[in-house]
Each structure stands twice: as C-alpha cells, then as structure tokens.
Amino acid sequence: MPQSAIDQQLAEPADQNAITVDCVAEMVEDLFTTMLAMDFDATPQEACKINESDLLASVRIDGDRSASVFIYTSPELASCIAASMFGQELEELEQSDVLDALGEVVNVIGGNVKGILNQECSLSLPCVGNSEGICPEGDLCVAFAHEGQSITVIVQDRS
C-alpha cells in the first residue's frame, strides 16, 4: 500500500477526469461539513494505516472505466458519523445504524468519483463490515484524522 498521499493520482495531470488527492480531500471535507455538519480538517496525512478494528465500506464503479472505492475508519469515528447523520446520541445507536451510515458515506464518495470519471458507468450497492486489517492495493490512498480517529479513502482503478 502506498505510504504517502503526496503526488498520487489515478490519471495524468492533464486529464480532466483525474482522481487526485485534492479531489478526494474536497469530497471528504464536503461530506463532513455539508452532509454531516461536522467540523473537519481535510488535510491528508502522510501515511495510510489500516487497523484490524477498523470498519470497511466499499463500492464498485463498473463501465467504460472501472474502479473500486474503499473507506476504512475507526468504529469510534463511524459512530460519530452515524450519530450526526441520524441526529441521535452515541449511546442510542445500534450497530446497524453505524453500518448504514458508513454505507451512505462510501456511496456519496463513490458517486463523486463516478461523476469525475464522467463516463457511462454504474455504482454498486455498498458493502460494509469489519476490515480485519485487510487492505487492497490502491492506486490512490488518502488518510485523514478527525479528533484523533482515522478515516482512509482508497480508490483502485480496475480498468
């Protein structure tokens, strides 16, 4: 897995359909600030680190250009996301709420990636569960931190 998000992207710099670190950072920041109404600093971290306890959500983009989007996050941050998304207190949440919220997060990010690709393609339903420390090789890996908790976005070009 790449250790740094610096200078990584999924296409040549001149390609208007490029998925870059800056694009992913903007997607994540928009998601947190607009959809979740959470303060978020979308400054990419130097290293992408997946923990065994992290939750995983993924979607596939299939068509002229194919990709997969994976989001790994700590259970604590996933719970904060769910609480914000559903307007509940942390102690009121069910595990299914946390998984549903994380599925929606990857669906939004995957939809944004699909839009940047700007080609005929479809987005799969999200898959959500425990990561068990398993991490795919990705063409683009961008990690962020929020209040001491991590969220990592991996975009894998499958074309």
Describe the structure.
31% of the residues lie in helices and 25% in strands. By secondary structure, the protein is an alpha+beta fold. Strands 1, 2, 3, 4, 5 and 6 form a six-stranded antiparallel sheet that branches. Residues 1-14 have low confidence and may be disordered.
Put the structure in a nutshell.
With 159 residues, the protein is α+β, with helices and mostly antiparallel strands. 31% of the residues lie in helices and 25% in strands.
- What separation lies between the terminal Cα atoms? 19 Å
The number of helical segments is: 3
Quote the beta fraction: 15-25%
Question: Sheet with the most strands?
Answer: 6 strands, antiparallel
DSSP strand tally = 6
Brief descriptors of the model:
159 residues; 3 helices; alpha+beta
Topology:
Elements: H1 21-35, E1 55-63, E2 67-73, H2 75-86, H3 95-117, E3 121-123, E4 127-130, E5 140-146, E6 149-157
Antiparallel strand pairs: 1-2, 1-3, 1-4, 2-6, 5-6
Helix pairs in contact: 1-3, 2-3
